[in-house]
Amino acid sequence: MLALLYDIHGNLPALEAVLEDAARQGADEYLIGGDVALFGPWPETTVARLRELAPATWIRGNGERWTAHPDAAPEFLRGATAAARDALGDELVAELDALPESTAADDRTRAWHGSPVSDVRSFTPDPGDDEAELLDDVSETRLIFGHTHLPFSRTSAVGQIELVNPGSVGMPLDGDHRSAYALLHDDGTIEHRRVAYDHACVPAALGERYGDADWVGRLSHRFAQARFETA
After folding, report:
1. Which pLDDT value is given to residue 165?
2. In CATH, what number is assigned to the domain containing residue 40?
3. Is residue 230 situated within a structural domain?
């Protein structure tokens, strides 16, 4: 059984809660779907914990790309990317940046961070106007992706492709503080799961580590509210 772990964002307590739940369900393989370290208060220990998992397949998210190439990040987040880079070190940053953009999860399923066309453009719970473009040239019958931090499963508006977002382990943005992940069962079915953890410790730890840096308040609000809207 494959555990689908996306958008962990340096949130070690959330990751530990998810791994404990996944083990209880019988997960014995892991897909690490990108954005593992950036934004959270525990970037290096989160990556170290993920590297203990085996067998595990990793793909790159925009967080890994931004940390390696800060000028690619939105300007208001460049302080956060610099903090993650300092915590991880240049060698590990380069290693994460070199990860593949996608991987096959089974014989009909491919995983991306955002979509086949971009790591910062993704699918939404309701079909968007650009869905056909995002699915252009897709041959698989199921896609797994993250980036929006909104867990859902549905069939695409074109092509009858199964679209699966496991949600975010470390920074849910659907108003539910519980960590989100999914299991790909051996029979091919997807199971979405939510796991409670001490979410209140995260914004406090972020402030303790990084003080009043200009980016901290914005991200602390997202961790605290489980919403994208900024303070």
Report:
1. 98
2. 3.60.21.10
3. no
pTM of the model: 0.96
What gap in Å lies between CA 77 and CA 52, rounded to an integer? Answer: 29
Q: 97 falls in which pLDDT band (50, 70, 90)?
A: very high
CB 142 within 8 Å of CB 108: yes
CA 76 from chain center: how many Å? Answer: 20
Tokens of 160: 């009858």
Residue 163 is part of which domain span? 2-225
Q: How far is CA 91 from the centre of its chain?
A: 21
Mean pLDDT confidence for 73-88: 95
Is the pLDDT confidence value at 230 over 60?
no
Closest CA to 120 of 140, 100, 101, 141: 101
Residue 231 in domain: no
